[in-house]
Amino acid sequence: MTETQKLSVPTGQAGDHLSWVAIFEDTIAGGAFAEDSSRGAVYVWERDGDAWTLRARLSASAAEPGDRLGTGVAISGDVIVAGGDELGSGGPGVALVFVRPAGGWVDATETARLVPTDAQAGAHFGFSVDCDGSVIVVGAYAHDGTFGDTGKAYVFLEPAGGWSGTVNESAALVASDAAGGDELGIRVAVEGRRVVCGARFAQVVDAGRAGAAYVFEEPAGGWRGEVTECQKLVAPDGEDGDRFGSYVGIRDPWIVAGATRTNSGEGSVYAFACPLPRARLVADGPNGVLVVIESTRPIEAWQLAFAYDPTMLRPVAIERGPDYPAGAPDPVVDLSPVIHCAAADGVAAGLTLAAIYSDDGSITTGPGEQRLLRIVFRRVPAEGEACSLLRFVECLGPAAFPIRNVVTIEGARSIDLATEDVEVCVREDFFIRGDCNGDRWIDVSDAVCILRYLFAALGRDCLEALDADNSDTIELSDAMRVVMYLFQHGSPPAAPFPACGEDRDGDDALTCEVFAPCQ
Q1: pTM score, whole prediction
Q2: Average pLDDT over residues 323-341
């Protein structure tokens, strides 16, 4: 890899410290925190073909010497956020938000100011910033909690009217084991519903102040109030003074953390695989869908909601999957939940599922991939193949408290699930009625097969094939009908018979998942 262009500012001077940078698609933002008597500024370049062109200089509307705007810089979409860790009355620090005008980036001052409700002089709020979509995270590594320089980070959510005026935090992020001098928030990173904060002097068992990275996940109720970490990451070979957590980054499923003082100052970077819990719908056979949840930690409970097209499919059965815990009660299922999605969402029918494995958390599933349920669908059209997208939504159930797609892990902590939709196609349920053993022939072995199903719990994939008289139940009379047809010139099994066909009476009491001779 070779350098293609060196970015600089025509008016730049020695000591400006243009170095804090961020990039998003075709836009680069660079902070020069020491420019103009340390008032600081942020410069914006955009890519034109193979070249980067300087477009704008962003500055504080009431800049003063020593503000240090540009100590932290981040960009997501049309939003640039820049920290000034000594900006504001008394020098507590402020983070400024700049929104790209419709005509493109031009010299401008901030659109909004992010200010913590518990601002402290010298807290260095804004030394580190990051943003992802409508979420901005700002660190204040010298914020004093119970002890000095404990550190703290703040989550800001874009207001309904957009980024404007003064905006206070929606949530504050703190370490559950906070101690003086930890410096939580020296670096922050956010992606989706997960935030990582470095604490370069955090205490670690048997490693002194080796440093740590704290992982925060958005609670089921959203970013509100004070939130503690769900996980503390440390170096497996950490030593006192390593400063692990001096730099952090995140890109699901990976979290990275830098330790600047390992190996006598050589430094190290550590990578952790920390995938978010994920829910997937997986097509299973000609008319089934597996509900799969993947997690790196044991799960105590979960709830899911998804939508489908009722003109194509309808759910007819919910079965326990192979990984559903044997001692847990059956899941709670609502096949017709209240729908309050926006008209544009196109949700006409939905299904909600929930399970609490035990009252005291003694029953869990995972970690790993867990095949929890199997949903059996039937097609609605009379003939042919019927397909529908099954997609996770969060607009089903009570309007005030819609069902969110979440799992509950150890300690009764709820975590939002990453989700993966699937298109399901239900084929015609071709089978031969009376052919219990699925060998394409009707003989006495089929009568025996039906009897074994009734009295010896023999499992069958196509129950409709056992219902010889099409009564929608499997009884002794079905075995007798096969025997009478073979030996007493009795009535043959009901249609479809003797060739492959489908059940056209539309009753869903019995299903046919797989009938190999007709596939």
Answers
A1: 0.66
A2: 89
